[in-house]
# Entry
Amino acid sequence: MKTLTAKYTKSENAISIIIQRVLDNLENNPAFPTLPEAYGILKKMYPEWQVALANAQGRDKHMVSIKNDLKASLQGSLGELGDYVTITAKGDRTLILSSGFDVTERRNSKQLPSIEKLEVVLGLPGEVTTIVKNVTGIKAYIHQYTTEQPGINTVWVQEGSSSGNHTFTGLASEKRYWFRVIAIGFNKQKALSPVISRVIQ
# Structure
């Protein structure tokens, strides 16, 4: 069975265009009245992405790494918004296009296998590394933490990566944090890890 879904071009040359288009088209769009948190994250990160692109033109390895991490986070947020648009539009091509996304047909596929185990390793004071085993068919990982007991309205701080391992720095010592990882597949499937809490050193 085929379904119509929101899509976007993932090349660096196109990603800036699609982000601006999606931000402009979803704002105050009556067809999509309740935008997810990913919209605000995308809006906040877009100027950072433009700066990172400019800084990486000199091919400094550090700047290129910053750009690549931002790209992974942006793709994660675009993926979440695309899922929201796809679900809300209920297969209506015109509605999907009104969001700023393109439209594609895809066969319904099985969900990714779940991430069965998350390791949260304490490092130096204020540092924590989240580790999940690499999942086949993944284009990005979103590493997240929050300082409150997770619930429906929890706001997660997130950082994108192409790796299942990621180190957070600058966390508050002697404070409890909750961590999780989301794996994003090439067909927009998602695998969510268990949530693990730790008291930071």
Notes: The first helix runs from residue 12 to 26. The domain at 119-199 is CATH 2.60.40.10 (Immunoglobulin-like).
